[in-house]
Design brief:
18% strand, Gyrase A, domain 2, 45% helix, Rossmann fold, alpha/beta, 13 strands, 6-stranded mixed sheet, 16 helices, binds guanosine-5'-diphosphate, 2 domains
Length: 462
């Protein structure tokens, strides 16, 4: 990732047609670029934080578009640098023209195209956001359910970062106490008792445990559960999807690539996204019509291999067919299978869940809404979801790993503190390691290559 500090520009709005489109520039001293593009009379500048209705002009003075120019003077901007936002009409061609014009007008200050996430990266580097907040920006944009969006928005406002910082502070205070004592070895013996170091550590560990639980649950809101839906035509796969989703269809954004490789539907239960891969899309690679479809099928199998659970849907009136067994036989052996017997309104079975050795069997009717709660509960159970009513943090895997590592270090610290010879130096060292892990969440101790990975996953213009 390029970490130079040259001014950057990008189209900030999503590609396609829209009411408005925004081109955004961030850098130092953008006043002249703004004046040139907006054809300001000599000596006049854009007033910071005021919307100015203006023409956007080409180098020859012809009008490209007209709209609003917004100027934010450093440091009072998203990135902490000067930011110029040009709001024009949201057509792909006019936006490209405006972008090209910005590059041209900014060529003398080496204005260049922004890389993905570079605006937010600058916001991070200029202390406008910490790392967890910057990640929340991407999570808010990518949120596929309302619960995920709300949780991301909370993290963006700094709630999660605030909790982490408080923990870091508590660990640091304890560490300072211990390290001060290290300088006076004759007092070591009394230290733990006098300062109640063990009690303080226990309080920190309790808080950390709670934060981990809220984050692990929040991570479910972000990542959800990957489910493979297998079954013969007409067993009721579409009906089951609709019944599961109810009114809670998740907002699914089109995934880049061809439409033919998209066999995933996302629904939600209690705000948890369930990504359902429909095996109707999996034909034999040999039968695929062309290369694009063949690649699509291969991708689907890759996705299947990463699934958390397989729902094998069957018609309760008919029982399993050979074709069913053939599909299921091709699934990886390590993915748990749930056998769901549909249409019990016709077969006369009662709604039930039966945990047998081969699989969990559930009897239900999708269209008559019988036994649906058994399936919902089982899916949430498999996802590890517990309804606690606590607020949740939309944590990423990276955060969970750091929180878990911090927990381990604090546990080791507690073990050292419990020893009769009070290994205070080891106690202090474990506190330092825990502090480092926690700080990596907000970005205080985060290597540059990790930063590059995090920001490169953003969209361009953010
Ligand atoms: P798919 O091909 O597997 O997606 O199956 P559909 O969801 O399209 O369902 C096939 C047919 O079975 C439709 O006519 C549905 O109305 C019917 N069906 C689905 N579930 C049930 C059910 O629980 N009971 C009854 N009686 N019919 C159902």
């Amino acid at each position: 990732m390029n970490l130079d500090s040259l001014p950057i520009v990008a189209i900030a709005t999503a590609p396609g047609r829209g009411g408005i489109g925004v081109v955004r520039i961030s850098g130092k001293n953008l006043g002249n670029v703004a004046a040139e593009i907006c054809a300001l009379v000599p000596g006049k500048t854009l007033q910071p934080r005021h919307a100015t209705y203006t023409r956007f002009v080409d180098a020859d003075g012809s009008t490209i578009d007209q709209g609003l120019a917004l100027y934010f003077k450093a440091p009072h901007s998203y990135t902490g640098e000067d930011v110029l936002e040009l709001q024009g009409h949201g057509g792909p061609v006019v936006m490209q023209l405006l972008l090209a014009r910005c590059l041209q007008a900014g060529s003398n200050i080496d204005l260049r195209l922004a890389q993905p996430g570079e605006f937010t990266q600058r916001a991070f580097l200029n202390d406008k956001l910490d790392l967890a907040q910057a990640e929340a920006v991407a999570d808010l944009i990518d949120a596929s359910t309302e619960a995920a969006a709300r949780s991301a928005s909370q993290s963006l406002s700094g709630v999660f970062s605030g909790i982490i910082r408080t923990l870091v502070e508590q660990v640091t205070n304890l560490r300072m106490l211990v390290e001060a004592t290290l300088d006076f070895p004759e007092e070591e013996i009394d230290f733990l008792e006098k300062s109640d170091a063990r009690g303080k550590l226990a309080v920190i560990r309790d808080t950390l445990q709670k934060v981990f639980r809220q984050s692990a649950q929040g991570a479910l809101l972000r990542d959800g559960l990957n489910i493979v839906l297998a079954g013969q035509p007409n067993v009721g796969k579409s009906s089951l999807l609709n019944a599961l989703a109810g009114a809670d269809i998740a907002i699914v954004t089109p995934i880049a690539g061809t439409t033919r490789d998209k066999v995933t539907e996302t629904i939600q239960i209690e705000g948890i996204p369930l990504n359902i891969i429909d095996t109707a899309g999996i034909r034999d690679v040999a039968e695929a019509i062309d290369e694009v479809e063949r690649i699509g099928i291969e991708r689907t199998w890759t996705a299947v291999a990463q699934a958390d659970v397989i729902i094998h849907l069957l018609d309760a009136c008919r029982g399993p067919t050979l074709a069913d067994e053939n599909i299921v036989a091709r699934f990886p052996a390590n993915i748990p299978v749930m056998r769901v017997w549909n249409k019990i309104d016709l077969s006369g079975h009662k709604p039930a869940i039966d945990r047998l050795v081969d699989a969990t069997h559930i009897y239900l009717s999708a269209t008559n809404q019988l036994g649906m709660e058994l399936l919902r509960e089982e899916l949430l159970r498999l996802a590890g979801w517990q309804q606690t009513g606590e607020s949740l943090y939309l944590a990423r895997e990276r955060h969970l790993v750091a929180l878990a590592a911090a927990q381990t270090h604090l546990q080791l610290a507690a073990e050292h503190a419990a020893l009769s010879d009070h290994a205070l130096d080891l106690f202090a060292e474990e506190l330092r390691l825990a502090q480092e892990q926690l700080s990596s969440i907000t970005g205080a101790f985060t290597p540059d290559d990790l930063l590059g990975v995090i920001f490169s996953r953003f969209c361009i213009g953010k």
